[in-house]
Every structure is written in C-alpha cells, then in structure tokens.
C-alpha cells in the first residue's frame, strides 16, 4: 500500500467558530482523498496488467505485467497531491463565507447554502466535492497514459522489451545442439518447430503490440469509471457509489475549524 486511506477518524467535532479550510486542513483533506483513491487506482492498474498479460506472447504473471506499467503508476503518484489540492480548493472551495464581514443566513454551519472554503460548506456540497476528487483522479490517470507523453513511451519500451525477450528465448529454443542434429526430422522436433511459430504475424508483432498497448491504455479512465460506478450524472447525490466514503469523510472534514 503506497498511501493510507482515511479509515480511522477522529471523533466528530464541530467548532463554534468556523473559518476557511486553510493550512493543515487543506493538506490533510487532500491527503485523505489521495489516500482513499489508492484502492480504486490499484484496481485499475490490476485490470490493465491482466489485459497486458493476455496481449503479450509470453503471458507474464500479473506481478510482472504490473512492473511494465510502473512508470504509469509513478507518474500518477507524482502528480496526485498537487492535482487534487488544486482541483478541490482554489478552483471551488475557497475563502470564507462572510460577505462584507457578515455570514449569509444559515452560515457557516454544515448546511450553509453558500459555496465557500469552510468545512461546513464542503459537507453541504459533498456530492460536488466527491465528484471533483473523482474527476481529478481520472484526469491524472489519463494524463499519465497519454500516448504523446514521456511516461507512455517508457511503458511502451518496457512492453516491447518484454516481447523481444520472449522472441529471443523462443529463437534460442529452436536451436538444437549439434549432437542431436540427426534427430531434427523426428516428430518431436517437428512439433517443437510448429509450436515456436504459434503466434500469427510474429514478425510484425512489435507494431501490433504498440497498437494494442495504445488501445489498452486509452481505456484507463473508463476503467476507473467502472471501478467507482460513475453513472454519468456528475455531482448528483447518487453517483460514484464505490468512491464516496461519504460518512467517514464528512466526519473527518468537520474535525477542522
């Protein structure tokens, strides 16, 4: 596990004076969401690895296939925090609720109808907060899988190297020792040769593998959508059932002043 999800939370505490979420509040809530998305992102990586294994001639195990995708995961991890913080706070939840020095009616409690940067506002507009976190996570995954990016090129090279190593191993397997040359026309020898040619279009496999990899990684965002049960309704209250953490996150958010 690369990050820890927010599972054990502090007791619910709503301060009498509520100010904008700043400093420690921003950092910890951002880290909470990045941490919560560890499991969904890892699920996407496993799905990608399973599909990658099936498209490679050697059909490597999931651990090996995942290692070829490591640059993708590393790129996501490197961008996850700053992307999440920027998406949630400066872009949407920012500043205090007070207007001309006075809080609007119903503010700054958890049901404040005014969008601002207080914990109460984040709780009131939780479906929007939840969607912002999901949308940013999906955007980071898709950016890492961009075929024009450096990360994609690293993954592509890993995959081509793996395919080439397999081809080299198979070629070596077809080279028979001099002492057994006289047996090269036996049924066993013929069968071995046929097996080694069991991948149609093997000579053009590198380009085919490139094309298949591009198509596979283009599905990364859609895979997260399936994992999180994104029904396409954006920030509706019923969306993202498996990437909500509503109860625990609301309680955690309200522990900040």
Proportion of residues in β-strands: under 5%
What count of structural domains?
Answer: 1
Instruction: Tell me the structural class.
Output: mainly alpha
Multimerization status: single chain
The number of distinct helices, counting runs of at least 4 residues, comes to 11
Structural shape: elongated
The strand count comes to 0
The Cα radius of gyration reads 26 Å
Task: Give the end-to-end Cα distance, rounded to a whole number of Å.
Answer: 30 Å
Estimate percent helicity: 55-70%
If you average the pLDDT, what whole number results? 83
Spans of at least 5 consecutive residues with low confidence: 7-18, 170-202
The string of secondary-structure elements, in order, is HHHHHHHHHHH
Which sheet architecture does the biggest sheet show?
Answer: none
Signal peptide: 1-20
Keywords: Signal
What report would you give on this structure?
It is a single chain. The chain is mainly α and 257 residues long. The chain has one domain (24-176, 184-253). It is built from eleven helices and no strands. Helix 2 packs antiparallel against helix 9 (205-217), helix 4 (70-88) packs antiparallel against helix 7 and helix 7 (150-174) packs antiparallel against helix 9 (205-217). It is elongated. Residues 7-18 and 170-202 have low confidence and may be disordered. Keywords: Signal. Residues 1-20 form the signal peptide.
